[in-house]
Write a structure and sequence with these properties.
Shape: flat
CATH class of the largest domain: Alpha Beta
Mean pLDDT: 94
Number of helices: 6
Strand content: 25-35%
Number of strands: 12
Structural class: alpha+beta
């Protein structure tokens, strides 16, 4: 009998998944879910801005994981779908290189029937996240080029104030008008990148990556109970140094496990590479 004939049937075959988004994220999540699982993706009519906005009008009170959970639950509650999806982005300075910006995308899937929660993440320095305070026109062309304007939108507001706020600006005349308004009001203007997904192609690439990772994980079944979402649940450090073979803080083993509560299936798989000597406490103290 072939392996295909004995492969367990995926629990979500023929199901509908719902995603909570106001900003077109179905365009990144829909294709891999359809290709890898045959899932139809629908958009839940919910106002996710209630949970926080990048531009600050609504404070973000929960962690990215908590916020994604609430969005996914909203998607299920508003559509009746078994499966709820959501993502949450966060941006800021790199923890080790403060002058370098970093973007993190978290994608989460809930199965209302089984109580499964599966999470994937992508963290990258490939982001246009920046801001600039100006006191007059013109806006430095170097800044506009560095943030990808006009293919990437901008937000303009008075520094330290939320109004007036001009969002989704993709025309230079509109940006200059917004800057002039804010300078007249407050003496300067804060220009920020608009990090909403539908107005930020760089962020869309990160979303496509995390969506593909999530879909691949959802398509991978537990070898014991056949629940969706088999994947890395923990890591173990101690990767040997390429020079002295002593353990380093880098990851040596990936711990794979099942998403279903009560299933104790686990495997421990070693990384095949060695740690660079520059990461070794012994060779580079």
């Amino acid at each position: 009998m072939s392996s295909t004939a004995t492969r367990p049937r995926h629990a979500w075959t023929g199901e509908v998944a719902a995603i909570a988004t106001k900003h077109g994220k179905q365009r990144q999540f829909g294709p891999p879910l359809d290709r890898l699982l045959g899932l139809e993706l629908v958009v839940a009519a919910v106002d996710t801005d209630q949970l926080g906005t990048f531009s600050g009008e609504v404070p973000r009170t929960g962690s990215p994981l908590d916020t994604a959970r609430r969005k996914a639950r909203w998607a299920i509650d508003h559509t009746g779908a078994r499966i709820g999806l959501a993502s949450e982005g966060s941006f800021g300075p790199h923890p080790d290189v403060p002058f370098v910006a970093i973007g993190a995308e978290l994608a989460l899937c809930l199965d209302a029937h089984e109580g499964l929660e599966i999470v994937e993440r992508v963290v990258s320095t490939d982001t246009n996240y920046q801001h600039l305070q100006v006191g007059d026109l013109p806006i430095p062309p170097m800044f506009l080029e560095s943030v990808g304007f006009p293919s990437h939108a901008l937000v303009v507001s008075p520094p330290g104030e939320l109004t007036p706020m001009f969002k989704g600006l993709v025309d230079l005349d509109d940006v200059e008008h917004a800057v002039a308004c804010c300078v007249d009001r407050s003496g300067s203007a804060l220009i920020q990148t608009d990090m909403r997904a539908h107005l930020n192609p760089t962020r869309q690439r990160a979303l496509a990556e995390v969506a593909d990772r999530l879909a691949r994980r959802l398509a991978t079944l537990c070898p014991v109970c056949a629940a969706p979402g088999w994947g890395i649940v923990a890591v173990e450090t101690g990767l040997p140094c390429e020079w002295c073979a002593q353990p380093t803080p880098l990851v040596a083993y990936d711990m794979f496990g099942c998403a279903r509560a009560g299933c104790e299936a686990r495997t421990r798989e070693p990384r095949v590479d060695l740690a660079p000597a520059g990461e070794c406490p012994t060779c580079n103290p």
